[in-house]
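Reply to dn_fold:

You asked what the input looked like. This is it:
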Amino acid sequence: MTSRRDRSGTYHVRSLDSTAGPADAITLHWPEYLMEGLELCLFMLVACSAGTLLFYSGSPVLRYVPSAMSRLVLMGLTMGLTAIAIIRSPFGRRSGAHFNPAVSITFLCLRKMHWLDTVFYVAAQFAGGTLGVVLARALLGSRLAAPSVRYVVTVPGFYGTTAAFAAEFFMGWLMMTVVLISSNRVALASFTWLLVGLLVMLYVIVFSQVSGFSVNPARTFSSAVVAHIWTAIWLYFSAPVLGMLAAAGLYVLWSGSETVYCGKIYHDLHSPCPFHCRFRQLTQTPH
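and this is what came back:
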């Protein structure tokens, strides 16, 4: 394990080294694992609640917003704001606000995460997302299972499996491209949270009818395991990961691996960092 703090005392890196074992990882980073699980738990709880409020046939919202497209826009706005709130929360600032196995796997391949951190992050994300749907079912009851809501499962839409795969791949590619370009440039790093939130909003609006909008294997699993709907599950486990890895490969090819400074979506230099982090170096680099 390695730990260092800069002279100001605000930049504290607590990363695992090559000799670390599972016990070391849990001892040092268990708060981050818990936070990752709670982040996706919250995201899924909001997704289920908003989906029920906006699309359940007995919801009073339908009287005032009868247009399905208008309600889809409201859904996108809700999920975009939720993503922003999570990223900028104390939990998101500390854990890195991945709440997505595809993001964690990509940063592992970029050598910003220790493999043990990745394993525990992914496990926490799957567990947290599932907990969020279970809690939503307890709160919303049969309304969440209604045909118009169906636990907000992600399944291929009107255009079939091929289009759904392409959509999930593209969304993953674009999301990681935006994250890498913005978070590794001084002028843009403080706006990454906003760009990600805008993408989530647009994805919900544009791609919900194509793939259901997942970009997140744990998000799809958490709905599927409670709803017992496993349609094309392989698609949602592969396409987002492949898309993000493709984006990372192109970024490294274009800019070089040394230009990836950290594995956090949004770095504020005030929260402990569990990654192989050089973000302070970015802020001190002349541009």
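The first strand starts at residue 2 and ends at 5.
Hope that clears it up.
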